[in-house]
Amino acid sequence: MKTPEIGVVGAGAWGTALAQMIASDGRDVLIWAHEPALVEEINRSHTNSLYLPSARLAQTIRATSDLGEMAQCAILLLVTPAQFLAETLSRMSAFPRDLVLCAKGIEAKTGRMMHEVASQAAPASQIAVLSGPTFAHEVAAGMPTAITLACGGGEEQWQRLSSALGRPSFRPYYSDDLTGAEIGGAVKNVLAIACGVVDGLGLGQNARAALIARGYAEMQRFGEALGADRQTLSGLCGLGDLVLTCSSTSSRNFSLGEALGKGAKASELMANRHTVAEGAFTAPVLAEMAASRGISMPIVDAVNRLLDGADARDIVTGLLARPLKAEGPSA
Ligand SMILES: NC(=O)C1=CN([C@@H]2O[C@H](COP(=O)(O)OP(=O)(O)OC[C@H]3O[C@@H](n4cnc5c(N)ncnc54)[C@H](O)[C@@H]3O)[C@@H](O)[C@H]2O)C=CC1
Ligand SMILES: O=C(CO)COP(=O)(O)O
């Protein structure tokens, strides 16, 4: 059986939606699933009842549990949750030229961004980051979506990837800023938890808008310190995704925050879920990275303390009691 040009590593909601989007022009796609039963389900009934039950998958999507076969694809989309990327890559002995990173997070144990994890595991590959306001179920349904495609291999890699991944209703926009694209996605997940808390506590829409704007200032401060381009953060993968995720219960991060705001315990919420809320893993490492660099991120810090068991109302009282100051990202 011929190996398809494009492969997707990770058959959660996002990997499955991306495979479906890629197959929408009739091409073959190979997808690797961590769960053997899911490999069988995708091949037998063309569904993913575990992670994307709303979609009827294209017949040209084939699933495998063989990571070795994935390396034969020319373009590999890596869509495992951030904390599993290094381990998954360590099980592969060869890599294609193009690796496209789709997870939104920071490695908790090391503080590495996803492109650092990937380039250390596969130094000969060219790394790209695909990130933006993209709920999986909408992409799988073919609804119009725009996304940042940041290419470490510059415009030559962009030519290859944009023609392979672009579709009439899936529009990538070029960037060469891997760091900015990754910081946007990682930070917005933590801020979405905060916005969910505000909704869960019933604090109103003014408070949510304030949190989005002040959270964006935190994203800009952190991004600037790590060398991200401010223009990247004001685009699809930063502000765009922040707006989407901070205003919808379709977001797992927002929903986690909402439950916390309603009084649920973080430890119980985390123990009982089978889908990923990346912000919960990113918050502690992000708070630590910011503190060690002297970057003020009070909202990220508050989410981190909440996940650690602090009371939501006490946290909000603390945030509202902060000294008044100038607006602007550097303040
Ligand atoms: N769902 C969405 O709408 C979007 C998700 N993303 C990002 O994509 C990444 C993946 O998220 P989803 O596909 O939504 O996840 P999901 O919550 O739907 O599925 C969990 C995933 O984790 C995998 N997994 C569990 N244990 C594993 C292990 N030991 N090794 C490797 N994989 C393991 C499962 O196989 C499954 O693919 C996350 O970083 C998320 O932030 C990005 C854009 C949209
Ligand atoms: O990243 C996403 C949309 O762009 C999905 O957000 P959640 O992971 O919070 O569901």
UniProtKB/TrEMBL annotation:
It catalyses: sn-glycerol 3-phosphate + NAD(+) = dihydroxyacetone phosphate + NADH + H(+); sn-glycerol 3-phosphate + NADP(+) = dihydroxyacetone phosphate + NADPH + H(+). NADPH binds at W14, H34, Y51, K104, A136, R252, V276, E278. Its EC number is 1.1.1.94. It is found in: Cytoplasm. Pathway: Membrane lipid metabolism; glycerophospholipid metabolism. Residues 177-309 form the Glycerol-3-phosphate dehydrogenase NAD-dependent C-terminal domain. PROSITE patterns: NAD_G3PDH (PS00957). One of its GO terms (molecular function) is NAD binding. Sn-glycerol 3-phosphate binds at K104, G132, T134, K188, D241, S251, R252, N253. It comes from the Bacteria. It is an enzyme of class 1 (oxidoreductase). Keywords: Cytoplasm, Lipid biosynthesis, Lipid metabolism, NAD, NADP, Nucleotide-binding, Oxidoreductase, Phospholipid biosynthesis, Phospholipid metabolism. Belongs to the NAD-dependent glycerol-3-phosphate dehydrogenase family. Catalyzes the reduction of the glycolytic intermediate dihydroxyacetone phosphate (DHAP) to sn-glycerol 3-phosphate (G3P), the key precursor for phospholipid synthesis. This is Glycerol-3-phosphate dehydrogenase [NAD(P)+]. The gene is gpsA.
